[in-house]
Design a protein that fits this description.
The structure is a single chain. The chain has 262 residues and is of the alpha/beta class. It has a single domain, classed as Collagenase (Catalytic Domain). Strands 1-2-3-7-6 form a five-stranded mixed sheet. Strands 4-5 form a two-stranded antiparallel sheet. A hairpin with a 5-residue loop joins strand 6 and strand 7. The termini are far apart. InterPro entries: MetalloPept_cat_dom_sf, MtfA_fam, MtfA_N. Pfam families: Peptidase_M90.
Length: 262
């Protein structure tokens, strides 16, 4: 079933502000948001309010939509565009939130022209020109290096320049060649790490799903950029610098709450 969004920002979308207790409660549970300085948090809050007024939230799978769900997703999703602006999320309106992982029908044509249909379990999905789908259960796992919201919003940024390929719409001052060089070198190294880790007890530092293709690598590394920036900068410094230039942020320089460092 699809539920209609009700709450403060739909009753007064043009003027309503996110209530302090709701905002502070969400920020306090997400170390990468709590690390923002006062001005950054103020601007993120304003950006999230704009996002909520512009986008349309619906739910599926019996989930009851709440202000907490919408504000939490908006706050996390707007962090990547804190210095870029809401226009980077243009061209789509819908947000669909599921209570847990959901099934997506897929089809693929093999080399002989035979179409194979199957179902895939997903925690998130970004459709080009269409809605963004999120598992609320997975969204609540944010804070320790896994962030399905930032992952899927990164795909939206990737799609803004055309087909998702790991190269978002770079500003004029950034070199596409430099981005691709850093991206592919890091991606190839990570694919090697994943191959070497298979069949052993050793885990990779980042989600092995990043080895699927350059687009997934960009999305997973965007999660790491905001959630575990020190680890990403140590492992792939060149790509970290490219991400910092694109997002116009340096999360590794932010001071994390003491509770997040324990």
């Amino acid at each position: 079933m699809i539920g209609k969004l009700i709450g403060w920002f739909r009753r007064q979308p043009a003027t309503a502000e996110i209530p302090d207790p709701l905002w502070q409660g969400i920020v306090s549970t997400l170390p990468f948001l709590a690390a923002l300085d006062v001005d950054e948090q103020r601007r993120l809050r304003a950006l999230a309010q704009e996002f909520l007024a512009e986008k349309e939230f619906t739910v599926a799978g019996g989930l009851q939509l709440s202000d907490e769900i919408c504000v939490s997703i908006a706050a996390q999703g707007c962090l990547p565009i804190l210095e870029l602006g809401l226009d980077y999320y243009r061209g789509w309106i819908g947000m669909v939130v599921y209570p847990d992982e959901f099934v997506i029908p897929r089809s693929v044509e093999d080399e002989f022209g035979v179409v194979h249909e199957y179902q895939e379990l997903a925690s998130g999905e970004a459709w080009e020109g269409g809605p963004l789908l999120i598992s609320w259960r997975d969204a609540q796992m944010a804070g320790a290096g896994y962030n399905v919201v930032i992952h899927e919003f990164a795909h939206k940024l990737d799609m803004l320049s055309g087909e998702a390929n790991g190269v978002p719409a770079l500003p004029a001052e950034m070199s596409r060649a430099d981005w691709q060089q850093a991206l592919l070198a890091s991606y190839e190294d990570f694919c090697t790490q994943v191959d070497e880790a298979e069949g052993s007890a050793r885990d990779t530092l980042f989600d092995p799903y990043a080895a699927e293709n350059p687009s997934e690598f960009f999305a997973v590394m965007s999660e790491a950029f905001f959630e575990t920036p020190d680890a990403l900068r140590a492992q792939y410094p060149a790509f970290y610098e490219q991400l910092a230039a694109f997002y116009r942020q340096d999360p590794a320089a932010r001071v994390r709450p003491a509770s997040a460092l324990q």
